[in-house]
């Protein structure tokens, strides 16, 4: 799978850990930065990863900041994004199955690397179930379009 990844200055080491972890499993990871510890602004990376996912360049995206909160809020402002912020794997799995999420966010200051691996594994292996959930996804899209 082709996965977009982005992060702010707080999450450089965590991003690198997740990138190496996913590549070892055979995934192609497109890194949108930052790769620097210099203070930066997380919406930059929300936009880069979101555009990559919404355009179809990447199938899924991963965003990491201190808490996962700011970077997911910013991503959810972009049409076509359904970003979830998770600190445990169950919600990551269910968000894919029921909410057809396309971006996972989490906090480098919230979860350790082992938990992050579990969250990422559930997120990328779960599949959207469609069916009864599609009506709600369509309602979310209508909200996005101002209907
Ligand atoms: C940066 O200090 C921090 O605010 C950011 O990484 C994130 O936690 C925001 O939601």
Return residue spans where pLDDT drops below 50 for at least 5 consecutive residues.
none
Structural class: alpha/beta
**Share of helical residues:** 40-55%
How many runs of DSSP E, i.e. beta strands? 5
Biggest β-sheet: count, sense, barrel? 5 strands, parallel
CATH topology: Ribose 5-phosphate Isomerase B, Chain: A
- For the record, the count of structural domains works out to 1
Task: State the end-to-end distance.
Answer: 34 Å
Strand order of the largest sheet: 2-1-3-5-4
Mean pLDDT: 98
What is the name of the CATH superfamily? Sugar-phosphate isomerase, RpiB/LacA/LacB
**In what range is the share of β-strand residues?**
15-25%
Please state the overall shape, judged from the principal axes of the Cα atoms: globular
CATH architecture label name: 3-Layer(aba) Sandwich
Query: What's the CATH class label?
Result: Alpha Beta
Summary, kept brief:
The chain is an alpha/beta fold and 147 residues long.
Q: Which key terms come to mind for this protein?
A:
binds D-ribose; 5-stranded parallel β-sheet; globular; Ribose 5-phosphate Isomerase B, Chain: A; about 150 residues; alpha/beta; about 45% helix
């Amino acid at each position: 799978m082709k996965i977009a990844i982005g992060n702010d200055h707080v999450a450089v080491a965590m991003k690198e850990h997740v990138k190496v972890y996913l590549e070892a499993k055979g995934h192609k990871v497109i890194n949108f930065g930052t790769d620097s510890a210099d203070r930066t602004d997380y919406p930059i990376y929300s936009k880069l990863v979101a555009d990559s996912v919404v355009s179809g360049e990447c199938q899924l995206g991963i965003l990491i900041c201190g808490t996962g909160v700011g970077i997911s809020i910013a991503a959810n402002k972009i049409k076509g994004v359904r970003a979830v912020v998770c600190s445990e794997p169950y919600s990551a799995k269910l968000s894919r199955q029921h909410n057809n999420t396309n971006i996972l966010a989490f906090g480098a200051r919230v979860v350790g690397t082992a938990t992050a691996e579990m969250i990422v594994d559930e997120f990328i292996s779960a599949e959207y179930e469609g069916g009864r959930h599609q009506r709600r996804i369509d309602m979310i899209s209508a909200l996005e379009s101002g209907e």
